[in-house]
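Quick illustration, no need to memorize.
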Amino acid sequence: MKTQRNPVWLLFLVALAGCRSGEGPFPSQRLQLGDERASYSFSDESDAAAWDTFVLSDQRAMFRINEEALEGGILDNLGYIWSINAERYDDVAGQSTMWQTEGTIGSGFGLMCRADGSGNGYYFLISGQGRVSIRKATPEQGVLLPLVEWQDSAVVRRGNEPNTVLAVCVGDYLAMFVNDQFVAEARDEEFSSGQVAVTLAAAGDDAAWVRFDDISTRDVLLLGPR
C-alpha cells in the first residue's frame, strides 16, 4: 500500500464539481477532496492483505488477486458479491478503475462506501451497457433499494472498456463520477460510517468477471450548494 498527497487531483475535482461547463448533468453541491488516505495497486502483499479475498465452497463466486488487480468472478446470478477493505471511514471518496473481462455485458459492478461485511451500505454501480445507478442495501431489505434508478450515461465506456468510478459519501450526500465527469447524486441518512468495497453481480444466468485496479481513498468535505 502507498499513501501520498496529490493537490493537483484535489483542485481538478473541485473544478469539476463546482465549475463544469457544457451540458449537464451537474452536481448540486461543491466538494473538496483532502489528503489521500490509502491507495492499492496490488503489486505487493500488503495491498492484497487489505482486501477480503475468498472462494465460495461451491466455487460459484470468488474474489482474488490476479495479475496485479483485484478480480471478482460469479458463475451465475447470486446477487451482488463484494470484497471489503479493512479500513473504516465516515466521510470518504473512493476511486477505482474497473472493467468487465468475461460474461454478458449488462452485469452491474462498482464501488461501495459505508459498507459492512454483510453487504449493507451504498452501491455506486455501472454496467457495460453504459448505465449507472446508486443503490443501498439495509439489514431490513433482501434486495438493493434504488436511490438513483438505472439510467443511461454517455460518459460510461461500453463493453469491456475500462471506466474509472469515483464514489463520494459525505454527510447525507452521495455523488458519483465516471471518467472524471459527474453522473448521479442522492441524499440518504441510513449509514454514517463503514468500509469501502468493490462489488459485482452477474446478468441473468451467465458468468461475470470484473477486474478492479488502482483503488484509492481520500478525505472529502461538502462545501455547500454550487
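The first strand starts at residue 29 and ends at 40.
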